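Input record, target 12 of the design panel.
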């Protein structure tokens, strides 16, 4: 029997992490003295840090400074997230049905990359962990 695979994006598809992204961006902006608004946050949601930070600063930033700020934001995001990640409505059921129906091998696409420690949230509150066969960093997609 031929096996089929499904690749899911993690953020916003299987788990809801938007509140942690939002709070970490607002905290970074406050720490750096930049103006931050809901409108700005939502207009940049889904973009990568290196794209957002110059927009937030209103100017290009030196690469070293850009990296420092991006690391601070990501570290704070993971601290805030802790074990409070909520599974998106219907995610468990969908993965379970796919697994039974087509012997699917489920992988999770981690946009921040494996090196950032984000796969640790995959198992949080997810009973579907036994169905997941792999984790891919976003760079591989």
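The sequence produced for target 12 reads:
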């Amino acid at each position: 029997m031929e096996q089929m695979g499904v690749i899911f994006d993690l953020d916003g598809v299987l788990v809801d992490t938007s509140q942690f992204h939002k709070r970490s961006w607002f905290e970074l902006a406050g720490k750096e003295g930049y103006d931050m608004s809901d409108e700005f946050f939502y207009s940049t949601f889904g973009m990568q840090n290196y794209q957002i930070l110059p927009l937030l600063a209103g100017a290009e930033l030196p690469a070293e400074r850009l990296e420092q700020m991006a690391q601070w934001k990501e570290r704070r995001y993971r601290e805030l997230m802790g074990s409070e990640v909520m599974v998106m409505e219907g995610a468990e059921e969908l993965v379970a049905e796919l697994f039974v129906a087509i012997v699917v091998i489920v992988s999770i696409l981690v946009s921040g990359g494996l090196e950032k420690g984000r796969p640790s949230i995959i198992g949080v509150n997810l009973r579907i962990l036994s169905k997941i066969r792999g984790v891919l960093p976003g760079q591989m997609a």
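Residues 113-126 have pLDDT under 50 and may be disordered.
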